[in-house]
């Protein structure tokens, strides 16, 4: 039972990270109907930005942890957003209105570019970061089994929930969110009614990248190691999460992220660690085949 | 946009271009400063930052100068034609020229190893390029003709390679027995993996095939006692020439034909083998395009719903495309295994799928000649820049993006229809649908 609880907590933590990345996929798919294949690598860039900013702050003598982490969060979000914006501007915007495959191929090219750029710029070796946030809580130490909840896990889950609420409010209440939803329904009509479609799409990419960078920071804090290759697998899993929750739906992305995190953790805990990626990938295939609109998504109506 | 003929009140072209370039440089500074300027290095005391501001300055300068130059030349306001524009007449003439170029290219490929100045390195490179030409042509059936975007094509390549390696290891079967078996097994897997994804279209299909490709690789990596896991399989037997081995023995190839033994014999043999396999793929594809099944593929690519209402069995059509594409990948895979003598899951990563897809798309989907040219250019380019192995992948990614922007329809962007009423006319690639299965 304790083991189960422990895995549940680990799964929720992992799921929060996947959920944050999945939101980027789901928002972009909702608005322009393309899979932003480079999003996983934007997440990877985000984690590197977090590491670099954190080390720079340490070098500058900022050692008060809560303040340092807050600055890291804000700066990493800003810098990664710039990457998200640039990727959209260079690789996707010129292809709007092109044939369907063009943006996907371009996104694959961008993903390869980002991965190898980071590899060359920062080196191919893994980057370890000693634990920054230590301590935690323990429950039920009665029969030798202990359930640990570390402070990092608490921070990850709380930050994720806060960001989720904030971004849901942005999408549902602000003029930007209204413009986004308008573009999602009918881009041409939105443009006719005075919505700046290009700007809205750019901002969608910026929001997705900002959330991915938060996920990158969480990943760095939770695992303590990053390298240039983490974006690929995390990206595919987050995409699975987005599809599972119903692509285009924000709460769906979060729910999907949680489920994928839980499934992966329990699979590793009760079956084999080696095949945990197979479990996630199989779920992707199964969901797409049997439940193409996901758990919370609207079914796609085919128009002839 | 400033009009170059506007009066004195409008800002000059140079001022606009300069402002835009300055903005681009500012963005580049934001991108490059943390990534290039502050490098994380592992030291004795932990992880630290190293400062490299020179690199940042260079990157920003390149972006500024490049953007300014482009703004003043190609992107100058008022310039009518974009860079990628080639008049249709010229394209049609090029396409006609390509008709004569293709036999010439084949002839060149046949005589290449016989030329006196050809070195072993050139033949090795030729084998590599032809392997990718074959894979490109195989994937072209799935992506170019049937319009099903497959990002996991390398899985079938892996199935072919492992089929031969395992059959040879456990049952001692020879290459010539295993070659068709590998093709059949790969086609079988094509059907197995193709069946569940029949209902999916476009991007979704791409991601699921990617997932399948990764699953097969992970299984190969972890099924330790059977596939050798990350260590792979070594000592895969080499192919024989109608039973004659390429060795020093008395019943070897060289001794039988009264030649002095040379390791080059086998290389040349392998070269002709892959050339024959690649040409087989090409001929089969060209012939199939004219058969009802080939027409059904192309019809399916254009409009699935119309297909179904006309009574085409979309299930069979898609599955045959998957199976045939996979079969050729299986042939190529078993050739790869026999040529290398060693295989491991390392060789079948997602990057390979992306590379083959890039060859097909950049060459011009559906165009056999374009795919071959793209394979030669890309694999040749990869080999040329082997010394700069770090930078060539960066360039590869960038080139993929740039070609998509410049010519989304690939290098050869005219398509000649397989069915026509009176005369056969090449049409622009933008008139055909792709990837919307």
TrEMBL record, chain A:
- Principal localization? membrane
Q: Where are the transmembrane segments?
A: 12-35, 42-61, 67-87, 99-118, 152-171, 201-222, 228-247, 254-273, 279-297
Q: Name one GO biological process term.
A: L-isoleucine import across plasma membrane
Q: Name one Pfam family in it.
A: BPD_transp_2
| Record InterPro entries | ABC_transp_permease, BCAA_transport_permease
Q: Which UniProt keywords apply?
A: Amino-acid transport, Cell inner membrane, Cell membrane, Membrane, Transmembrane, Transmembrane helix, Transport
Q: Which GO terms describe its cellular component?
A: plasma membrane
- Identify its membrane topology class: Multi-pass membrane protein
Report the subcellular localization: Cell membrane
- Is the keyword Nucleotidyltransferase assigned to this protein? no
Single GO MF descriptor: L-valine transmembrane transporter activity
Say which family it is in: Belongs to the binding-protein-dependent transport system permease family. LivHM subfamily.
Q: What protein name does the entry list?
A: Branched-chain amino acid ABC transporter permease
From TrEMBL, chain B:
Pfam families per record: BPD_transp_2, DUF3382
Localisation per UniProt entry: Cell membrane
Instruction: Give the way it sits in the membrane.
Output: Multi-pass membrane protein
Taken from the UniProt entry, a GO cellular component term is: plasma membrane
Going by the UniProt record, its keywords in alphabetical order are: Cell membrane, Membrane, Transmembrane, Transmembrane helix
Transmembrane domains' residue ranges: 21-41, 53-76, 97-115, 121-141, 148-167, 173-197, 204-225, 269-288, 319-342, 354-379, 391-408
* Domain annotation High-affinity branched-chain amino acid transport system permease LivHM N-terminal: ranges: 17-111
Example GO molecular function: branched-chain amino acid transmembrane transporter activity
Q: What is this protein called?
A: Branched-chain amino acid ABC transporter permease
Origin species, per record, is Methylopila capsulata
């Amino acid at each position: 039972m304790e083991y189960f609880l422990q895995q549940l907590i680990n799964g929720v933590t992992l799921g929060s990270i996947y959920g944050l990345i999945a939101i980027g996929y789901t928002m972009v798919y909702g608005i322009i109907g393309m899979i932003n294949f480079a999003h996983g690598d934007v997440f990877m860039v985000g984690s590197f930005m977090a590491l670099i900013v954190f080390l720079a702050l340490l070098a500058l003598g900022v050692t008060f942890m809560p303040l340092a982490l807050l600055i890291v969060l804000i700066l990493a979000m800003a810098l990664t957003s710039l990457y998200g914006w640039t990727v959209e501007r260079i690789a996707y915007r010129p292809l709007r209105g092109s044939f369907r495959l063009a943006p996907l191929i371009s996104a694959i090219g961008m993903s390869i570019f980002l991965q190898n750029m980071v590899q060359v710029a920062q080196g191919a070796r893994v980057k370890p970061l000693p634990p920054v946030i230590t301590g935690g809580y323990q429950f039920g130490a009665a029969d030798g089994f202990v359930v640990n909840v570390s402070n990092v896990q608490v921070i990850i889950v709380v930050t994720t929930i806060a960001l989720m609420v904030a971004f849901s409010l942005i999408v549902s209440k602000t003029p930007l969110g209204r413009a986004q939803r308008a573009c999602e329904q009918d881009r041409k009509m939105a443009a006719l009614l005075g919505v700046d479609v290009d700007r809205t799409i750019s901002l969608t990419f910026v929001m997705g990248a900002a959330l991915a960078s938060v996920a990158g920071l969480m990943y760095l804090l939770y695992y303590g190691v990053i390298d240039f290759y983490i974006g690929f697998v995390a990206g595919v899993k987050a995409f699975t999460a987005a599809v599972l929750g119903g692509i285009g739906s924000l709460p769906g992305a979060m729910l999907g992220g949680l489920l994928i995190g839980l499934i992966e953790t329990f699979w590793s805990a009760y079956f084999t660690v080696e095949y945990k990626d197979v479990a996630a990938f199989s779920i992707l295939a199964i969901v797409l085949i049997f439940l193409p609109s996901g758990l919370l998504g609207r079914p796609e109506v085919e128009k002839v | 946009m400033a009009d170059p003929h506007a009066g004195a009140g409008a800002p000059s072209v140079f001022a606009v271009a300069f402002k835009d370039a300055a903005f681009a440089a500012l963005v580049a500074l934001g991108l490059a400063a943390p990534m290039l300027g502050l490098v994380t290095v592992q030291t004795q005391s932990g992880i630290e930052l190293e400062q490299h501001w020179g690199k940042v300055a260079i990157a920003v300068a390149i972006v500024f100068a490049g953007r300014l130059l482009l703004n003043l030349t190609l992107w100058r306001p008022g310039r009518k034609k974009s860079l990628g524009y080639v008049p249709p007449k010229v394209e049609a003439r090029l396409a006609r020229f390509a008709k004569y170029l293709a036999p010439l290219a084949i002839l060149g490929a046949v005589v290449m190893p016989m030329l006196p100045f050809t070195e072993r390195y050139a033949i090795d490179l030729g084998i590599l390029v032809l392997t990718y030409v074959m894979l490109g042509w195989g994937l072209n059936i799935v992506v170019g003709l049937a319009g099903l975007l497959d990002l996991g094509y390398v899985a079938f390549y892996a199935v072919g390679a492992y089929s031969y390696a395992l059959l040879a290891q456990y049952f001692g079967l020879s290459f010539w027995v295993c070659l068709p078996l590998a093709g059949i097994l790969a086609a079988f897997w094509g059907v197995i993996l193709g069946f569940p994804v029949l209902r999916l279209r476009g991007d979704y299909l791409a991601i699921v095939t990617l997932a399948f490709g990764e699953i097969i690789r992970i299984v190969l990596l972890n099924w330790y006692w059977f596939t050798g896991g990350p260590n792979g399989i070594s000592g895969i037997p080499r192919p024989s020439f109608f039973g004659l081995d390429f060795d020093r023995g008395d019943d070897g190839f060289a001794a039988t034909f009264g030649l002095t033994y040379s390791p080059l014999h086998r290389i040349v043999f392998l070269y002709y083998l892959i050339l024959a396999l690649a040409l087989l793929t090409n001929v089969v594809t060209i012939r199939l395009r004219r058969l009802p099944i080939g027409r059904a593929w192309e019809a399916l690519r254009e409009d699935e719903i119309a297909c179904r209402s006309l009574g085409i069995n979309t299930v069979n059509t898609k599955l045959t495309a998957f199976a045939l594409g996979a079969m050729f990948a299986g042939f190529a895979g078993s050739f790869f295994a026999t040529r290398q003598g060693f295989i491991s899951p390392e060789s079948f990563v997602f990057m390979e799928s992306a590379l083959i897809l890039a060859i097909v798309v950049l060459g011009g989907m559906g165009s056999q000649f374009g795919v071959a040219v793209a394979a030669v250019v890309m694999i040749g380019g990869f080999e040329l820049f082997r010394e700069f192995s770090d930078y060539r992948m960066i360039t590869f990614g960038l080139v993929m993006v740039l070609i998509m922007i410049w010519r989304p329809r690939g290098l050869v962007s005219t398509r000649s229809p397989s069915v026509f009423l009176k005369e056969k006319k090449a049409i622009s690639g933008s008139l055909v649908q792709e990837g919307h299965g």
